[in-house]
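Progress note, project year one: complex with fe (ii) ion.
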Amino acid sequence: MQGFQLFEHAATVPTKAYNTKEWQRGYRSLTQEYDYWIDEIEGELPAELNGTLFRNGPGLFEVNGERFQHPFDGDGMISAIAFHDGRAHFRNRFVRTKGYLAEQKAGKILYRGVFGTQKSGGWLANAFDVRIKNIANTQVIYWGGKLLALWEAAEPHRLDPKTLETLGLEYFDGKLGKGAPFAAHPWIDPSSKFDGGKPCLVNFSIKAGLSFTIAIYELDVDGNIVRQHDYPVPGFAFIHDFAITPNYCIFFQNPVKFNPLPFLAGTRSAGECIQFQPDQPTKVLIIPRDPAIKAKPQTLETPSGFVFHHANAFEQEGEIVIDSVCYTSLPAVEPGADYRETEFDALSPGQLWRFRMNLETGQVDRTLLEPRCCEFPFIHPAKAGRPHRYIYMAAAHAETGNAPHQAIVKVDVETGARQLCSFAPTGYVSEPVFVPRGNASEDGLYTELQGEEDDGWLIATVFNTERDRSDVVIVDAKDLSIVTTLHLKHHIPYGLHGTFTPHYFES
Ligand code: FE2
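Model obtained:
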């Protein structure tokens, strides 16, 4: 299953490398909370690998037998895999959100989910109920001495980094309002020109109302919001991720329309009221990071497509270059449909595109970088907002078509070379988190390049259907060979995002 042995291994894997029934087993809830040293290890743990990988994702897919209609509506569960002195420790814990606690106590679904979940009792029970359950299920970051679980439509939850105990909602000394959204896709600018070259964290929020507003937040290394500015956005804004450069924030406003009436009437969830507009362009909003610049955001257009995630952006000779995973359409969330019965063949794959945007002429050119079905792009953290060479992603085993992610792909955007580490036919792969080899800064950040850009490891969780459990796999980012496989005692449901910090939290 090693990357450089792909072709040899590929010959033993059938053309259709996945089995839908087996894949579905990764969508079972993990109700138990564990705390143990991992003792089933294949290979050696790299001695230089010290720190904690935090991962977030839905851990619960039903309440007392009542099923959430979409995995994105599942309650957030944090996993912490800590590497220390050649050993590895696993812990998982649900984020004790107000909604999670209330539903566990009641033994039934009390909130409508954004992506399809309705309360039982039909439209009458759901009509005009627009309350949001903060499910805290998308990303987890350690910044300014605080561990924060993020979900884009509400405020972060603060957790104890040692025990993962939920400490409460985080308002950054009152600079974030009660119930205010705070996106799940922050970037760390490794050298912020607004902070004397120190790193800062840049995040955004989409505030919905009669119209939409993008708010940009920048936090110093101590975790304080030091810059904040708002921009009105015409039209409906379904924006999950963004990208930064030293001077700009870049947003792709996907071409979708939203009809709120069935949602208000209780007949459909919010996600089921969103419709992709294939005849409309994707708008690219370019917003200066300098709050002193009062100019309107520049809006460019590129052909219709849907983007959840961006790999990175950078400025180059009057242009902004951005690499993003783009879909030709967003499949509609159909009422009553079972996400576990996804027909992969019927959907378009996410593919990696490069967009070059000329700020003078407004011209946007795009080229396909990687046609293989892929998602969850990751780069070296020192390259955030700067020209990068390597992008790592979760990907399909097969070169063409749409399929579950069973491999890690590395794309060299300079030479066009790519490498693959496939876990097919029995492995299903999460986002690969890149961890640089070498020392982090005093702030615990990998903001300086030491050695080559691909000198480090990729750490991913892989649901292994043969064992019916998950593995934590450490892959050498240079040649995509598997260095270490840590066998967990249980599965981890398919998750969303994670981050690595060189801190080890003794408990
Ligand atoms: Fe995401």
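Residues 138, 185, 240-241, 308-309, 496-497 surround fe (ii) ion (CB under 6 Å).
Residues 2-501 form one domain.
No further modelling is planned for this target in the current period.
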